Amino acid sequence: MGRILAIDYGTKRTGFAVTDPMKIIASSLETVQTNVAMQFIKDYLVKEEVDQFVIGLPVGLDGLETDNTKPTKSFAKKLQQNFPNIPLAYIDERFTSKMAEQSMLASGMKKKDRRVKGNVDKISATIILQSYMDQQSF
């Protein structure tokens, strides 16, 4: 059984989260600079089986595309070209960064750790993944 790999794509940093092989638990994985995100995925796929990609799609409060939607879709297209046998799903990522910040605060994470932008990105990816899992029935 493979995992689901969630991606919180950003123009500077990209956060990743992954399920366990049974697809029960979503866990944060890593945050990398976006210019090496594709290589990170390639390296990860050498070690782990992935059944699906889930990408957070940036949309505004009105449900329309934002400035970040086009780069995210472009990355998703490259992902599909590189890994055509792994299905890809989008999920609305509105409010995930805010939810990640609230989660870090509620968990008692120290202020200096909450200021690390990479922590927000990988926790956002985890929220994206959990949202996707909540909508599915495995």
TrEMBL record:
InterPro entries named in the record: RNaseH-like_sf (IPR012337), YqgF (IPR005227), YqgF/RNaseH-like_dom (IPR006641), YqgF/RNaseH-like_dom_sf (IPR037027)
Compartments, record wording: Cytoplasm
UniProt main location, coarse: cytoplasm
Transmembrane segments: none
E.C. number(s) listed in UniProt: 3.1.-.-
GO terms for cellular component: cytosol
Location of the YqgF/RNase H-like domain: 2-100
Nuclease among keywords: yes
Function comment: Could be a nuclease involved in processing of the 5'-end of pre-16S rRNA.
Similarity comment text for this entry: Belongs to the YqgF HJR family.
Protein name: Putative pre-16S rRNA nuclease
Organism for this UniProt entry: Flammeovirga agarivorans
Gene this chain is encoded by: ruvX
